[in-house]
Amino acid sequence: MAELIDGKKVAEEVLAECVQEIAELKERGIVPGLAVVLVGEDPASQVYVNSKARKCGELGIYSEKIVLAEDSTQEEVLATVRRLNEDPAIHGILVQSPPPPQINEEEIVRAIDPAKDVDGFHPENVAKLALEDPSGFVPCTPAGCMRLIKAAGVETSGAEAVVVGRSMIVGKPMALLLMARGSDATVTVAHSRTRDLAAVCRRADLLVAAVGIPEFIQADFIKEGATVIDVGINRVEDASTKRGYRLCGDVAYEEVAAKAGAITPVPGGVGPMTIAMLMKNTIKAARGAS
Questions:
Q1: What is the average pLDDT across 43-66?
Q2: Does 290 have pLDDT greater than 70?
Q3: pLDDT value at 213 more than 80
């Protein structure tokens, strides 16, 4: 049975570092500030936004939650972003995704000051990631995955890594991090339309699943003893549970865990790391503004 990579435990270690870093900033009169903009009242987005605000409160980060109406215009959202760009109390800005269909998300991301783009999605930060420029912000979920890989003692240098998923949020930045100097993995980026995907995945010493399909990665995708990082979090109907649904990842956990060397669970794996790395990015932004 695979070794469990405990995201909750590693996230606690990251947050303990954050507490120390925030204390050092406050000694210099700097209180890190994070603003989260939510357009509409999507229940899942509200849960995410509230969890971010709660974590800020626990750590002593100043936070603003700005909820705009579901029918807000593009210009109204842009005006909010511009105001936050100019607010010296706010060091980090994120606009919760996905916005309603009338909102052009790409334009909103480009409007955020790159020095406050703690999600790491602005083209300037994407370029810095590709150039291995440490002054940029790395997207939180891939950064959290790298921290888990390091905590698990996985040797990436020379390893064959397969990333299943090609999004700008996870897949592409994950591949850049794994192939960067210091990680030195040989990286293949695959997706749901890759021919003979199972055979491609079986080459992997390290497999990162970020395809967004419940339990898509099965045991025959896995090399014996491989490390598996499951980024997916999916809600699947399940009448046997009190809530009527269960959460699962992109990996068929039980059958893959019997074959892998190490694996992240869902929930309790990558999820806690994403918020922890957001706090890290906010502190970095505050430090850069000082």
A1: 93
A2: no
A3: yes
Decide if 26 is catalytic.
Answer: no
State the amino acid at position 149 in one-letter form: I
Expressed in percent and rounded to 5, the helix, strand and coil fractions of the chain are: 45, 20, 40
Kindly report the number of other CB atoms within 10 A of residue 45's CB atom.
18
Residue 26 token pair:
């406050």
Q: What is the pLDDT of residues 222-247, one digit of tens each?
A: 999 999 999 999 988 888 888 888 99
Q: What is the predicted pLDDT for the residue at 28?
A: 96
Q: What is the mean pLDDT of residues 142-165?
A: 98
Give the CA angle between residues 79, 85, 86 to the nearest 5°: 95
Q: What is the pLDDT of residue 45?
A: 85
Q: What pLDDT was estimated at residue 289?
A: 79
284 is a catalytic site residue: no
pLDDT band (50, 70, 90) for residue 196: very high
Rounded Cα distance, 108 and 111, in Å: 5
In the block, which residue shows the tokens 């070794």? 3
User: What three-state secondary structure class fits 247?
Assistant: strand
pTM exceeds 0.85, yes or no: yes
Reading the block at residue 250, the tokens are 């992109």
Catalytic option among 96, 113, 223, 259: 96
Q: Are 98 and 40 in contact (CB under 8 A)?
A: no
Gyration radius of the chain's alpha carbons: 19
Q: What is the distance between the alpha carbons of residues 41 and 11, in angstroms, rounded to a whole number?
A: 28
Catalytic, 52? Answer yes
In the set 113, 117, 119, 230, the catalytic residue is 119
Contact 245, 238 (CB under 8 A): yes
Residue of 52, 116, 259, 284 marked active site: 52
Say if residue 267 is preceded by a cis peptide, omega within 30 of 0: yes
Q: What is the DSSP letter of 115?
A: G
* Helices 270-289 + 43-59 axis angle, to 10: 60
Residue 287: Cβ within 10 Å count: 15
